[in-house]
Design brief:
The structure is a homodimer.
Chain A lengths: L1 E7 L2 E6 L11 E9 L5 H4 L9 E2 L5 E7 L11 E4 L2 E2 L5 H4 L10 E2 L7 E4 L2 H4 E3 L9 H20 L7 E5 L3 H12 L4 E5 L3 H10 L3 E3 L3 H11 L5 E6 L4 H10 E9 L7 E3 H7 L2 E4 L4 H13 L11 E4 L3 H9 L6 E4 L1
Parallel strand pairs in A: 11-12, 11-14, 12-13, 14-15, 15-17, 18-19
Antiparallel strand pairs in A: 1-2, 1-4, 3-5, 3-9, 3-19, 5-6, 6-10, 7-8
């Protein structure tokens, strides 16, 4: 088969790859229904993470099980499944605590920008649907795997409550999913910082009540004004730069929580500033597995439509263009037809 | 009257001071029933905070109201009151959110290592008892004002739950109060890091289930062993150095919360490390006012005895020796008879 490899900054290749097979008795192999490019794929693509060896790209996935290892008990060939971008056994103490993304057996999914992929620890990682989902739901089910699960975790970590005031920093796909999550959690006010018309429109559709297009000090001042100088009850930091984190800290009210899901790059916190700001923080790779059943149900019952976040769809063979379009912010998120 | 001033590192003077009087209509003046030295007083005493002008020391207090300003409505002369070390109006949005220590009108109490003290924003800050408390309860009521309130906040911020595993970093007075708080919140296991026999004994009396006397890597390894490699559900960081914070981070399980109440001195966090550790953090000056009624009730009904944390009692005139004893760790906490 052909799959996606990253050789270095800007160097995405769609090339011959070995067919995935069962390597351990706990594995499954799935045929992907669709794949996509993640905002976090752009870190190595842009050279922000060093690439020392070619990387098998792609960690968001849903599809049909084609084969399972001898120890797999909860999924079987023919079933439609969604999994988290973090492989987990779902039985260790960290998993039982709801933090499957820190599973004792944690692995990060790879190689999903391909027609087939191997999923380790299939019993812990995959959740099957009762029947084959309708075709038009595939983008939304794919979104659950990472981008929605991550936005949801940001809102959960930031402890969004009914009626509360939420600020979302970052209008990438995860930020937009954060808006959707905050809306589902019945936030009273959802302010997103966004300068791009198409993203603003989608944010409004997902439930944003206010758009702040100013950045930096001006953006902070605008949010202070919107919240009568109080600040937000919950802040979702969905970028991962020092600038975006400072923005989050400045608009968070004392006693609020910042849920941060953008992988921090070069971000430092000063202990004493954080102390006197009295802002709570919880971040990390999203424990999507915790949310999978609920989010899949919301999609299957058509209560949410996270799949709209894919505003560019390309054949898998054009994956390099998919990266490029996101890098140049021509696309929010690229779906790949397999 | 004579009161306590700090002129510079190690230079505590008990000297003639003006009698406090009502300066604003929202003030009260109280006659202190007792005063004490705070661990945080040792930062400037030790030169860790610069002293640019003489400081009127003392911010923990309880006593009898002698005079109130014309706007004060909820306390009256003759009443016994306890207040927080942070002055707050208890009506602003931050106060109503439970974070009175970030009140829009916040001031930090000063001048309480004296026979009399002025308390600004008396209505918001002070809580009166129904009647004069029995004399032997004075140390515990004094403790509520800061040291207990702060330890309690650490446990609250760290979200201690019934049955959960708690690690307390720091065996100073605040750490010991953190043990007491965790016990009241029905933690299942309370591990304190302590190397001092008298503090270990008091920790055990307050409800600690395990003492870890090792420090650094060894201490971390010991806690990992005690928690079957999982780490703690909640960590109370009650020191404020980089070393103690690292200790807290290393023993906190993914998804746990660290409540940090030691004022950070020279503490930095790396965003990416914090992200992948997936540890939550909430700190700051304790919103003691939120807890005052409950904690005063626990003391008045003799359910808790935080006053035992005072293991040295001196006349107010010997306040300099009180600082010295704490600085040299001969005393956990010094109470001053006024």
């Amino acid at each position: 088969m052909f799959g996606t490899m990253l050789y270095g900054p800007g160097d995405v290749r769609f090339e011959e790859r070995p067919e995935p097979k069962i390597e351990k008795p706990t594995d499954a192999v799935i045929k992907l229904s669709a794949s996509c490019v993640c905002g976090s794929d752009l870190w190595p693509y842009r050279g922000a993470n060093e690439v020392t060896a070619p990387l098998a790209m792609g960690h968001e996935y849903c599809g049909v099980v084609v084969e399972v290892g001898s120890d797999v008990k909860t999924v079987r060939p023919g079933q439609f499944v969604v999994g988290s971008f973090v492989i987990s056994d779902n039985t260790c103490p960290h998993c039982r605590f709801g933090f499957q993304s820190s599973c004792e057996q944690r692995e990060f999914m790879i190689g999903a920008q391909s027609p087939y992929a191997r999923v380790p620890l299939a019993d812990g990682t995959l959740v099957a649907t009762e029947s084959q989902p309708e075709e038009d739901l595939i983008p939304s089910l794919l979104a659950v795997s990472d981008v929605l699960g991550t936005g949801w975790y940001a809102a959960d970590a930031a402890r969004v409550q009914p009626g509360s005031t939420v600020v979302v920093v970052g209008d990438g796909a995860v930020g937009l999913m954060g808006v959707l999550a905050a809306k589902q959690m019945e936030a009273g006010r959802i302010i997103i910082m966004s300068r791009h018309k198409t993203r603003q429109d989608l944010a409004l559709e997902y439930g944003a009540t206010d758009i702040v297009s100013e950045r930096g000090e001006e953006g902070i001042a605008r949010i202070k004004q919107l919240t009568k100088k109080v600040g937000a009850d919950s802040v979702l930091e969905c970028v991962g730069t020092q600038e975006s984190m400072n923005q989050a800290l400045q608009v968070a009210r004392p006693g609020s929580m910042i849920g941060y899901v953008g992988v921090p790059h070069g971000v430092q916190f000063d202990g004493q500033s954080l102390f006197f700001a009295q802002v709570g923080m919880l971040g990390g790779p999203a424990p999507v597995r915790r949310f999978l059943p609920h989010l899949m149900d919301l999609v299957l019952t058509r209560k949410i439509n996270p799949g709209k976040v894919f505003d560019l769809t390309l054949p898998l063979a054009d994956v390099a263009e998919g990266y490029k379009a996101m890098d140049e912010r021509r696309a929010i998120k690229t779906m790949l037809r397999v």
